[in-house]
Amino acid sequence: MNSKKKIVTLAGVSLVATAGVVASTNEVKADTTSDNAQAAATSQTADQQAQAKVDQAQSNVNSASQATSAAQSQLDSANATNSAAQADVNSQQAIVNDAQAKVDAATSSVSTAQDAETKAQQNADQATSANIQKAQDAIANQEAQISKDTDAINDANKAVSDAQSTVDAAQKKVNDATTVRDNQQKNVDAANDAVKNAQAILDNSDQAKKQAQDALNQANQKVADATTAVNNKQTDVNNAAEAKKNADEALKNANDTQTSAQKDKDAKQAVADETSAALANANAAVKDAQAKVDTINDKLASFNTITLPAGYKDDLIAYYNYFGNSNYNQDEANNLVQDLLKYSDQAMSQNKFKDNLSDDRVVDIDNLNSTDRAELSQFVASLINQVRTQMGTNLVISSPAADDYAEQVSQNYNKDNWNSADWNSADNGKHDLSALNNATDQLNISWNGENMGLDQSIFTTDYTVLTDGTKLPTGNKQTINDLKHLIYDDFISMMFDDANSAWVHTTNFAGIDNFAAEKQAVGFSLDKFYNTHYDLVEANQKVEENSYTLPSINALTQKLADAKDDLSIKQTDQASKQKANDDAQNALSSANQVLVAAQNDVKDKTATAQNANDNLTAAQKALAALQNQLSTDQSNQKQAKTTFDSFDADLATKQANLQKATDSLKAEQGRLAIAQADLDNANKALSNANNNLAQKKQVVENNKEALKADNDKLVQLQNNLSDLQNAPKLLATAKEQVATAQKALADAQEAYNVANDKLTSLKQTAAGTATNVSKAQQALAEAKNNEATAKEALNQAQQELVKLQQKEALAKQVAEEQAKLAAEKEAKDNGYHIENNQVVDAKGNSVNGWTVKGNQIVSPTNATVDSAVSETTNVNVDSKGQVQPQTSVTTNGVKTVAATESANPVSTTTVQTREQYKQQLKSNNQLPQTGNNDSAVLSLAGVALAAMLSLLGIKKREY
């Protein structure tokens, strides 16, 4: 923001007050009237000057005060503006920060979208029929692997089941061995009790007999209870067996359903694979067709055209034809030139070179091969024919022979060392006719014209650019695109800005030159000086042979239409294949769902069957245990009855029974040791079986993990296949997402730029307002200083004025007294008196300038004097040094007193009698003497001088 400096200048006024009083001891004469008047005028002028200085000082104070107030207001305003500006900066900074965050987020989104696009492009590049088939094969292989994994799991599960059976069998042996051991322990306990009973029976103890009766009763009850328990458990076993039968039937049905679902899924998979392959082929066909459309569109987008402005054709023909006019006039010719030049800007504006990325291959312009020269010649011919089509003139061809002619011309230029672009050479701007004619003789091809572009500096300097401002790289390594750009630049310059060459290049290209053959060809070449040659030759049979098919925008447009039709057909087929594949994939998905449901049902039914089997096994085990208990109880019952019956045997029998019982106890204890050993072996076998089961289960878990990994890989492969099959859609979506993200980034960047530009502007404004605050502070300080200076000056001026006024008042009083005394002396010395109301002297002559007022005469200085007056003047000075003059006048015995003005203060006149006056003189040691008036003047002047010196501050010097 620009700002203007405001400079306020305060002009100081130096106030100088001067005053002076001159007192003379000479006799006062009449001519002192004019001196007194001059002194009064001088005093009056000094007084006015002093007052003017006071007024000026006061004005300066007022101005300075106003300036201070204005400066304060400006500072307040500047502070407010600066605060507001800084607040705007802070607010905008927050907006910029938010905008930057959005730019960062949008940049990240663009990066993510571009990564996705790169992957989509890579996927599209890989979406060939072969790769899709590979993906399908990989899926089939993976499914086979999953089948193997499933078989492995099934085998492992069977191994687990077998191991579990081994464990169960081992557990059963442990249980059985435990039961045997426990039962044998009971047998030992019973045998021990039998020994005790036999001893008791031998001892014939009543208590023992009673105990035997009680034991028999208890044994009978246990047998009854055990029998009931066995019968009940048998019912449970029967129920469990029925449940297992039903569960096994349900599992069989579920397995049949799973088998059917698997067959249906396999069939659907085959169809899906077929439709997927067909879709892949259709996608590949669409991709190829789209690539053709894109290629043609790229060619059209980069196809360089030449468009003549409306009216240019007619004005060019008119210009060319005018040179054959018998009434040729230079002015008219100049007008025709101007008619052509008016199209230059329009033509340059509407004809712009279009870059072609496919032409970015680098070539050595010192050694262009025939293929590159042919491509460039065809580009030249295309531009010429576009112009000639609009001009209605004959078209040119491009052929190998025309290229050879142009190349031979360049070699001839090189041989002659002819550089048309050398400004210091005689060759500058000229064509080498020998080179052209020699080429004609060498190749038997006639030339009709040559246009040249003097482009040496384009490749040899860093400061030359093309007409459109493009700077090509220096050196001999150039791209075909850059060379075409150079040719295009030469062409439009020669077509629309050729006045300096009398439009000869233009008419050559336009085909309206009288030298143009009916059939023409054009060749292009570069000489060693990097000047371009556009050689037009007569298209004889040799030149026409193997002529090139020139690029045509109309042909490209037709190719584009055909390619789009082909693309549309393939897209329709693709859509059909896509629908068929979608239907097949949906059917496959449904079949997979049915299969998964069937597999889950088999799993559930298997669990149910296993549970039923476990329940039956448990019931059977319980029944066997109850049956064993019943057998034990029956054996105990039998032993209890035998024991009870033994009480009735003879002594020998009782002794034999005791021995038998003792032997039986030993035998049972031996069997108990064997049962314990069997149990220990069974526990060891169970431990081994459990370890084996754990290993088998681990194998199952490992196989399940492998199956999960393979299933995950299958999903990945299926997704990969889907990506390949839908590559065009995915790529289009990715491109859209990139475009959307880039637009969002562009919008965010634009918003940031706008916000940041505004922030920069606001910061500049804030910097300016801060500077203004600083300037306003300086201005305020300066204004306050100026105001203080002005006030000091005013104070000094006022003091000087007061001093001057005091001095002037005193001087005025002295002057008036002097004038009055002088007038009285003059009147007394000359005998002035009144006659006939006129002032006359002692001789009766009229006195000029004196007048009569009442009974008094008035001097020219306006001092009043009595006629025939004797006058005494006495001046008193009071204790303060102030003058108090008194004048007493006696006329015809009547005494009057005249009061005179006093400077500071003015005393009032006192009326005295003659006697009082004489008495005063005595008291002052004075007597009336001749010349008293002179003494009074001197005395009064002395007093006045003393007072003035006092005012001026003059002091006695002390040593």
Protein architecture, described:
The protein is an alpha+beta fold and 959 residues long. Helix content is 71%, strand content 7%. The protein contains 18 helices and 14 strands. The strands form five sheets. It has a four-stranded mixed beta sheet with strand order 2-5-6-3, sandwiched between helices. Strands 9-10-11 form a three-stranded antiparallel beta sheet, covered by helices on one side. Strands 12-13-14 form a three-stranded antiparallel beta sheet. A hairpin with a 5-residue loop joins β10 and β11. α3 packs antiparallel against α14 and α7 runs parallel beside α11. It is flat, with a radius of gyration of 71 Å.
Unreliable stretches (pLDDT < 50, length at least 5) are 1-34, 869-877, 886-914, 924-959
Share in helix:
over 70%
Q: What is the assembly state of the chains in this entry?
A: single chain
Sheet-strand content, in percent, reads 5-15%
**Distance separating the two termini:** 70 Å
List the total number of helices: 18
Looking at the structure, what is the overall shape? flat
Strand order of the largest sheet: 2-5-6-3
Biggest sheet architecture = 4 strands, mixed
Return the average pLDDT rounded to an integer: 82
Look at the helices and sheets and give the structural class.
alpha+beta
